[in-house]
Amino acid sequence: MSNFTALYLLLVVVTCFRITVCLLVSFLVPAFTGSLAQTALTPSSPWGTWFIGTIQLPTGPKKWGGFAEVQGRANGVFSQFFYNELKGGVSYDLDKNFTLTLAGGRYATYDYKVLSDGPLNSEKRLWEQLIINQYLTRLKFEHRYRVEQRWFTFRDGSTPFRSRIRYRLNMFIPFNHRTVTEKTTFMSIFNEIFLNPVGPTFERNRLYAGVGYQFDKQWIVQLGWVNQTNYNSATFDQGVFTPQLATGKNNIVINLTYRIKRRSTSERLPTQPD
Question: Has residue 14 got a pLDDT over 50?
Fold first, then answer.
């Protein structure tokens, strides 16, 4: 390899790293500082709980994989359960750093005070997704791009349709190994933005930080914190300006993942499908 070629490759690597760091800072810093202020908007129940159980079929020699997941959420800490998800999908590796996914699920929201009355609304969702992975020695980055189609059924009989675009930047840092493998303790930090093509354009922000442990090739457990903030767009009606509103909530996240055994030699990031 010539000196010119080596210099060119070095410049490419440095540029990619700088872009990734800038994106990480631009997403995480505003979201983190904003989440601290927004949490006060829900003082009656500032903390909730998310339980996530996932079964993954890792991609194998023929590049096909998949997942199934069940999720429950509570309005309080281990109390006031009001929401559940059941979803699954198939994936295909274009190569080791690019993965396509087609998935769908059912989502239901209840009034936690009267669960027996049935869901306030239910949703059927379909999405298409692209994941791009970057491995920078000990730092691992995952870029996830998702387009969703959403069909709702509300208790009053209305059935609206909505679409949404999501982008998530996820960073993994293994502590006791250079890769996330057996007997590895790691940290995961991500920020995800939710965009609505109809409006409000900036619909939601989700910021997560947590630690995890991969016991072996099959079992992974993660414990973390997530702040989810929903936004309503500003309006100007009959001479009255109503500013944009934001409601945020902190949640404890407990995630257990089981991977079905499959022959592979590549590193698998402990990503959460949700």
Answer: no
Dist CA 150 CA 42 (whole Å): 27
Give yes or no for residue 83 having a pLDDT over 60.
yes
CB 225 within 8 A of CB 206: no
User: pTM for this one?
Assistant: 0.81
Residues 6 or more apart whose CB falls under 8 angstroms from that of 192 comprise 144, 166, 167, 168, 169, 205, 206, 207, 208
Structure-token match 């010119």, residue found: 4
Q: Dihedral sign for Cα 121, 122, 127, 131, please.
A: positive
* Cα 172 from Cα 269, distance rounded (Å): 8
- Per residue in 203-247, pLDDT (tens digit) is 999 999 999 999 999 999 999 999 999 887 655 565 554 555 778
The Cβ of residue 4 has, within 10 Å, a number of other Cβ atoms equal to 8
Domain 3-259, architecture per CATH:
Beta Barrel (2.40)
Grouping H, G, I as helix, E, B as strand and the rest as coil, residue 215 is coil
For residues 18 and 31, what is the distance between their CA atoms, to the nearest angstrom? Answer: 20
